[in-house]
Amino acid sequence: MLDVEDLSVSYGAVKALRGVTFQAQDGSVTAVLGANGAGKTTLLRTVSGLVKQQSGTVSYDGVKLTGLSVENIVRLGISHVPEGRGVIEELTVDENLRLGTLWQFNHRERRSVLDEIYELFPPLAERRSRMASTLSGGERQMLAIGRALSSKPKLLLLDEPSLGLAPLVTAQIMALIQKLARETRLTVVLVEQNVRSALSIAEEAVVINLGRVVVADRAATVAADSQLRHHYLGF
Amino acid sequence: MSLFVNLTLNGITNGMIFAAVALGLVFIWRATHIVNFGQGSMAMFTTYLAVTLLDRHLNYWLAFAAALVAGLVMGMVIETVLIRPLRGKPALNPVIVTLGLFILLEGMAGSIFGVGNRSFPPAFSQAGLTFGHTKVAFSHFDVFILIAVVVLMLGTLALFRATSLGLRMRAAAFAPEVARLLGVRVGRILTLGWALAAVAGSLAGLLVAPTVSFSPNFMDLVLVYAFTAAVLGGLDSPVGALVGGLVTGLALSYVGGYLGSSLEPLGALAILMVVLSARPEGLFSRPEPRRV
After folding, report:
1. pLDDT band at B108 (very low <50, low <70, confident <90, very high)
2. Nearest-CA distance from A9 to chain B in Å?
3. What's the rounded Cα separation, in Å, for the pair B67 and B73?
4. A74 vs chain B: nearest CA distance in angstroms?
5. How many Å lie between the alpha carbon of A84 and the closest alpha carbon of chain B?
6. How many CB atoms are closer than 10 A to CB A182?
7. Residue of A nearest to B171 (CA)
8. CB contact at 8 A, A47 and A63
9. Which residues pair with A156 in a beta bridge?
């Protein structure tokens, strides 16, 4: 379980998060929603250690993450797919995927993990020795998610996976995320602007506005509350 | 004709040395986006270590290896102690530190080893080889220089292309934040980049020293030419370092041979100006900017 407790983060004088508290349960999808600049990306970046908190704590399965380095947080089984996908264009598809496996598996295990990823994303298998810069937007998203999965994480942090994707591709990606959570007990924290898509697969929803949590409830409840939706989520 | 051949051979040999130093500059630029003005004096220092060991009658190749290992350690220590604390500070700060390093190391070498000219023995004969009846300005030692730098280049290529350490190094250079999110310990990779740069520099120092009057500033001009080579090739491209080194070596050799050796630094300046105005990113660099 991911446990975020009274987390505050500032960039200089700008307060990005003001006392955020929420939990993400094992094997569930938690959607983090809110307008641009609400602090969603900052929240994920703080969990994965890229941003240092001002106060409050983040812990995962009882281990305190705040204060650990990014590289050590990864080693606890936490994978972060950053906004804009973070595919390394100068490397091939295979090299991108292999990167995620380097810190833990031996050579043979790496091959079998990669084979699993290619099975999950057949378009990547066809392009394994191509440079990542030649991939389409949907393929890049597959690569970014596949690469995050290649370290066999327990917690997956996804930042705007639908960004710039066609609706059909978005639907495929969302279905895959839901399947992974159900079948492999993967815990997913999903930051999305695409509120409908996110709520359609999430069990829990956290709505953030100007750095504060305004609602944390069942996703279905949030989806049904038209006033809330209208006020914070714009539809 | 024979002048042209000799100048060409001389240019290739010098170019390989510039390429080795340029490779060091490229390692550091790729990893940390710092131009290391201390590259030459670091190499000078390890070469002095080698000659000190040779004075004590140590085996030539052991002294040679010791200088390379000293370079490795020196690169790691300098990165850890001087450069790492400046991470996240303005980009100029570490560059100024490398300038300070340049002055510090040359000063220290002068006071420890003496400022006078010395000689550094070559690994092989420096007498020109004879082909048929023609003696050319290319010796066994020049052959050794070529082989040593080619081995360095091939080793670099193999490291980057064929090992998972090389994959980590490339990832850390192209996208440090993403690399960290994938578990790459980028800090250690940067230290390693400095270490490898210093080894490449040390090798160049050992190859240059027998051919010049050996004193604490013997690498200064080499660094200027290697910098020209690295800019020409594109500061982040190892292949560019090799090609840039060879082009710079040949160009300066022709300038020196046909127009007078005192014009060589001007030749380097001319190359720098043409490259920086016509193609500032160099011949082999990736186009900037990129989005992650």
Report:
1. very high
2. 19
3. 10
4. 6
5. 7
6. 13
7. A88
8. no
9. A79, A188
Cβ-based burial of B223 (10 A; exposed 0-12, middle 13-18, buried ≥19): buried
Q: Kindly indicate the confidence band of residue B286, based on its pLDDT and cuts at 50, 70 and 90.
A: low
Find out whether B249 and B13 touch, Cβ atoms under 8 Å: yes
Chain A touched by B140 (CB under 8 Å): no
B290 Cβ under 8 Å from any chain A Cβ: yes
Peptide bond into B210 cis (omega under 30): no
- Asked whether the beta carbons of A190 and A161 are under 8 A apart, the reply is yes
Measure the N-to-C terminal CA separation of chain B; round to a whole number of Å. 53
H or E element, residue B80:
none
Q: What is the pLDDT of residues B148-201, one digit of tens each?
A: 999 999 999 999 989 999 999 999 988 999 999 999 999 999 999 999 999 999
DSSP letter string, B204-233: HHHHHGGGS-BSTTTTHHHHHHHHHHHHHH
Q: For A39, left (φ over 0), alpha (ψ -120 to 50), or beta?
A: left
Cis preceding linkage at B289, omega within 30: yes
Neighbours of B43 (CB within 10 A): 35
Tokens of A95: 């090299």
pLDDT-derived band at B289 (thresholds 50, 70, 90) equals very low
Contact B290 A151 (CB under 8 A): no
Closest of A8, B74, A83 to residue B66, by C-alpha:
B74
ipTM: 0.92
User: Distance between CA B26 and CA B19 in Å, rounded?
Assistant: 10
State which residue of chain B sits closest to A104, comparing Cα positions: B183
CB contact at 8 A, A76 and A65:
yes
Contact assessment for residue A200 and residue A162, using Cβ atoms and an 8 Å cutoff: no
Nearest of B199, B221, B209, B215 to residue B60 by alpha carbon: B209
Q: How far apart are CA A219 and CA A198, in angstroms?
A: 9
What pLDDT shows up at residue B45? 95
In this predicted model, what pLDDT tens digit does every residue of B38-80 receive, in sequence order?
999 999 999 999 999 999 999 999 999 999 999 999 999 999 9
Amino acid at B249: G
**A80–B286 CB contact, under 8 Å:** no
DSSP state of A92: B
pLDDT for A3 beyond 90: yes
Per DSSP, the residues of B164-179 read HHHHHHHHHHH-HHHH
| CB contact at 8 A, B178 and B171 | yes
CA distance B275 to chain A (A): 24
Question: B186 CB near a chain A CB, below 8 Å?
Answer: yes
Does residue B144 sit in helix, strand or coil?
helix
* Nearest-10 Cα torsion for B246, B247, B248, B251: 120
Collect all residues of chain B within an 8 Å Cβ-Cβ radius of residue A82.
177-178, 181, 292
Inspect the interface and report whether the beta carbons of A86 and B292 lie closer than 8 Å.
yes
Q: Residue B172: which of A141, A94, A95, A42 has the closest Cα? A: A95
